[in-house]
Design goal:
Number of helices: 31
Bound molecules: iron/sulfur cluster
Oligomer: single chain
Helix content: 55-70%
Largest sheet: 4 strands, parallel
Length: about 625
């Protein structure tokens, strides 16, 4: 037998989704900017192609990152994705080897047992049947976990899962029916013909012993085909669109395409790549410290996909980057949130069926403005020429102990330095950016940039990680930028600062904007190891906790911020350290109010450790430290 009408739903669904994936990919490609198109073309024919295939295998099929973060959840995803892939792969080989001819249409592989019911009795055929049963059992084990997770997410180690819309519910039901209907259809057919292996063969003989297996098998083959067809047809308008989209995302990312600061095709690709796995919900401190469970990135992605008003979600966030760190798909969640903060509104979506399958790129209508277009009141300041320019930042001015410590360190180093903002100065612009006011922030950036340029400084040092991040990402400076922990490390390495060992037990809290935001993890710890006994906390490096004092969230109350800070401080000081060290004035201020442990910035600890009568220091190395201007940012 070569064909049966029950395969029609599957065929319609399969050819629809294949054509759809091609058309949608072409649309995404044509909506990319010209440089991004070139990047993708180069990536497709270069080394990025191999990297992408490897990533697709490791992340889209094996789900390595989810496995590492949560084994049960990872197993569930892996068994469904990798298992299905294996079933298709080995099913195609099975149809090719054991079928009546080579190069069969896809339905022959999917419904192989129906068209070859007496296959698998002896020899190699029986071994192959065993393999196919094993793969099906693997998938079904993951499916059982998925069904349980829907009703009790704790079973897979999660506190909360995302809610489903009607098309998602129908697609999910179809997905859940695919493999059980295949199991029963194959088992009943095997029961009639005495074939099948340990799963379908055993179940088939039991079912055939008390049921009319011959009559029942056919409706289950129909159910199997209908489930597949329905799932494929609904896939583009449901969360399962992440399956094909993630492949495109991986190629685009490995080709060097990044989010930038504008909404566009790459942003859309990322929002559709979100698998709604919910890992970002569990990683978010707003969830586990304050019980806020509706603003996490999973909801942001879902809201953007559905063209909903996500204003509150975008602003109710600490911008700590923990969700970026944990997202197994690698979506640049914080930059996408920043883009949404800049958006006053988005064009209302069309409601037609066509637009649900082929949505237009989301168009941001207005960008926010505070109605004061110019900062003409900014003072005319003249900076004197210097080698090192120190920018304390507003938060450091509000935390004078850090400023004093930095003055001690700079004096002890013997370097020629000046303050950029000794009398208070002008903000770096980051808070305005976090509020979505980019144009206004740009005015502050231009003002500060002029001062920095005029100073002729070779090194710009800042104590505030928030300032450091904005200097790094939004200023265009011909100066070597250093956070003060990097600067102190350099002074120690070059023997320009002699320090005593303080013998204190310290733990280090990596500030979000310094660690996850700027990738600086080692220098602060190296400095601490030089002067104290540094202990691990269990929340180190990119797993660091947010202090809760973030300027990025103006929606939560002071009480909620305190709760986040208290929970984080108690987790960090479990080992009873003498000092909770940090490298950010805002973190210091926030933690100080919620813990009895002494909280100190690394600069303060270093200032305490400065040797009282240091021997002659090597000041001649100062010039050699500088990089050539061409290498500078
Ligand atoms: S944003 Fe990432 S972590 Fe969050 S639900 Fe989507 S894929 Fe999962
Ligand atoms: S950035 Fe931090 S606070 Fe915001 S959603 Fe992600 S984990 Fe939660
Ligand atoms: S980021 Fe914060 S500390 Fe730094 S200058 Fe701006 S407001 Fe001040």
């Amino acid at each position: 037998m070569q064909f049966d009408p029950f395969v029609i739903p599957f065929n319609i669904g399969l050819y629809f989704i294949l054509i759809y994936a091609v058309v949608r990919s072409v649309r995404w490609f044509s909506n990319l900017s010209r440089p991004d198109k070139l990047r993708l073309q180069r990536g497709f024919f270069g080394s990025a192609f191999g990297r992408s295939l490897k990533e697709i295998f490791m992340e889209s099929l094996i789900h390595r990152k989810i496995l590492k973060a949560n084994f049960r959840l990872g197993y569930m995803h892996m068994s469904l994705a990798f298992g299905w892939f294996l079933l298709i792969l080995f099913g195609t080989i099975e149809a090719d080897i054991f079928g009546t001819r080579h190069l069969n249409p896809p339905y022959k592989a999917i419904f192989f047992k129906f068209f070859n019911p007496d296959h698998g009795r002896t020899g190699f055929e029986a071994v192959y049947s065993f393999l196919m049963d094993l793969i099906l059992a693997f998938i079904l084990s993951g499916l059982i976990l998925a069904v349980i997770k829907r009703f009790s997410s704790k079973v897979v180690g999660m506190k909360k899962t995302t809610k489903l819309k009607l098309p998602d519910k129908i697609a999910l039901t179809s997905l859940w029916l695919i493999f059980p209907s295949r199991l029963i259809a194959e088992s009943l057919t095997s029961g009639v013909y005495g074939t099948g292996s340990f799963l379908t063969g055993s179940l088939g003989s039991v079912l055939a012993s008390f049921l009319p297996a011959n009559q029942l098998a056919y409706p289950f083959w129909w159910l199997y085909s209908l489930s597949l067809g329905t799932f494929f047809l609904l896939l583009p308008v449901t969360r399962y669109m992440h399956i094909p989209t993630e492949l495109f995302l991986i190629f685009a990312r490995n080709s060097g395409i990044r989010t930038g600061d504008q909404s566009g095709a790459f942003t859309e690709i990322q929002t559709y790549s979100c698998s709604s796995c919910g890992i970002c919900i569990d990683a978010c401190q707003l969830n586990f410290s304050t019980g806020i469970t509706n603003i996490q990135s999973a909801y942001l992605m879902k809201g953007i996909r559905n063209n909903e008003d996500v204003n509150d979600i975008a602003f109710n966030c600490l911008m700590c980057g923990r969700c970026d760190r944990y997202c197994p798909v690698g979506i640049e969640l914080t930059p996408i949130r920043m883009i949404r903060r800049r958006a006053e509104s988005v064009e209302p979506p069309e409601k037609s069926l066509w637009s649900r399958y082929f949505p237009d790129l989301i168009k941001i209508v207005n960008t926010r403005s505070n109605g004061h277009p110019a900062f003409s009141w900014l003072p005319q300041i003249k900076t004197e020429a210097t080698e090192v320019l120190y920018y304390a930042g507003c938060m450091t001015h509000l935390t004078p102990a850090i400023k004093k410590a930095m003055i001690r360190i700079l004096d002890a180093s013997g370097m020629n330095y000046r303050f950029l903002d000794e009398a208070g100065g002008v903000c770096c612009g980051r808070p305005l950016m976090l509020a979505g006011k980019d144009k206004e922030a740009r005015e502050l950036i231009n003002f500060n940039s002029g001062l920095i340029r005029d100073s002729g400084a070779r090194i710009l040092v800042t104590s505030c990680p928030i300032c450091y991040k904005v200097f790094r990402e939004s200023y265009y400076l011909e100066v070597e930028l250093m956070h003060h922990t990097q600067f102190i490390k350099m002074l120690i390495d070059e023997d320009m600062l002699r320090l005593r060992f303080l013998r204190k037990k310290v733990v280090y809290h990596a500030p979000c904007d310094l660690g996850r935001g700027s990738g600086i993890y080692d220098e602060p710890k190296d400095v601490l190891r030089h002067v104290a006994r540094l202990q691990p906390t269990g929340f180190d490096d990119d797993d660091s906790l947010c202090c809760g004092g973030s300027l990025g969230n103006t929606r939560i109350s002071y009480r909620q911020k305190n709760k986040i800070a208290a929970d984080a401080a108690s987790a960090l000081t479990k080992g009873n350290p003498e000092i909770l060290a940090t490298a950010c004035p805002l973190c210091k201020k926030t933690f100080t109010t919620v813990t009895d442990t002494r909280v100190a910035d690394i600069a303060e600890i270093v200032a305490e450790a400065i040797a009282p009568n240091p021997p002659e220091l090597k000041k001649h190395v100062v010039k050699e430290l500088y990089r050539e201007p061409a290498d500078m940012i």
